[in-house]
Amino acid sequence: MMKVYGDYRSGNCYKVKLMLHLLDHGYEWVPINILRGESRSPEFLLKNPNGKIPVLELNDGTCLWESNAILNFLAEGSEFLPSDPRLRTQILQWQFFEQYSHEPFLAVARYIKVYLGLPDERLAEYQARQLDGYHALNVMEQQLARTPYLVGERYSIADVALYAYTHVAHEGGFDLSHYPAIGEWLARVASHPRHVGMYDQAAITATCSPDP
User: Fold this and answer.
1) 75 and 109 in one domain?
2) What is the mean pLDDT of residues 10-31?
3) CB contact at 8 A, 14 and 161
């Protein structure tokens, strides 16, 4: 069985968890506490020398890292990754957008607030993330006002990649009430019959290895 090394509160880790549930794949969840430095341990660095989560360990011991790369691997041959080169390129566009224009602002603001408790020394940084975070949301709103999903009519890994941190944007101080198309898209994604929530501990517990 595949293993996922991650933190259930992390959007990047949640992408992998959600994808596995959408594909109805079994997996073992191995919790990693980044605040305790567990992703920097010698044992973990053998799995990902970059010292970050998530990591997907395959049955043969091969380890894959970088959340969007993992999504592409898992979704190959499924309905969530079309074979048409143009559509696949558009999916990549949104995945690059997520990592360079979305995650650095929405996710970092959330990290400062949720993980660190919004300390005074990070307050200015937290506030600075808001402007560019709202710009990313504006870009998404424009697309989702035109199409039900980010790449046309079908749910794809582009949606998985962007859903992860967008659906908890409020935890980073972002107000989504002025983004009706995003709101409808969030509900559309969550309505999938194999959807699993970020904080759905029952799903994690059912497939989780015990803490070391």
Assistant:
1) no
2) 97
3) no
- For 100-134, b/e burial (b = at least 16 CB within 10 A) is ebbbebbbbbbbbbeeeeeeeebeeebeebbebbb
- CATH number of domain containing 161: 1.20.1050.10
Counting the structural domains of the chain, the total is 2
Hey, which residues does 29 pair with through a beta bridge? 4, 208
HEC string of 52-106 equals: CCCEEECCCCCEEECHHHHHHHHHCCCCCCCCCHHHHHHHHHHHHHHHHHHHHHH
The model's pLDDT over 132-161, given as tens digits with 9 standing for 90+, comes to 999 999 999 999 999 999 999 999 999 999
Look up the CATH number of the domain holding residue 11: 3.40.30.10
Q: Do 13 and 73 share a domain, yes or no?
A: yes
- Is a pLDDT exceeding 80 seen at residue 203? no
Cis peptide before 180 (omega within 30 of 0): no
Range of the domain at 106: 85-190
Which residues are within 8 A (CB) of 151 and not within 5 positions of it... i.e. 6 or more apart?
A: 82, 87, 90, 91, 94, 158, 159
